[in-house]
């Protein structure tokens, strides 16, 4: 299936001029114990396909909305391109992308600005072709490594 890149406002770091930037953002759905997010809250989730992310991560409030009991999960300190670490609560959830549903891990933390789809949990389930600036094509893998 193909997705168009999402155009977002941006400030050029060299010229300082306002413009747009294209990002590989797709519609997804997530379920834990309380049904599909889109059914419960009547809104669609979006996520950034991030080839630099090791794992799927999401903002902490989404865990609470999904009914994830954080008190039963031991947080792990994770780090990214920013300074410091983030207490991240990893659990298994179900993802729905297009017509495909599968179970994969995701980490929830209070410093994540949006859902990021990374290596473990996304790229290991999907073959991804970035055709910038035209579109992103993803195909569900029938076997996983």
What can be said about the biggest beta sheet?
A: 7 strands, mixed
> Given the helix and strand composition, which structural class is it?
mainly beta
Radius of gyration: 16 Å
Strand content: over 45%
Low-confidence spans: pLDDT under 50, at least 5 residues? Answer: none
Mean of pLDDT: 94
CATH class: Mainly Beta
Query: Share of helix among residues?
Result: under 10%
The total tally of domains equals: 1
Measured between the Cα atoms of the first and last residue, the distance is 21 Å
Could you tell me the CATH topology label. Cathepsin D, subunit A, domain 1
Apparent shape: globular
- How many DSSP E strands? 12
Concise synopsis of the structure shown:
The protein is mainly beta. The chain has two helices and twelve strands.
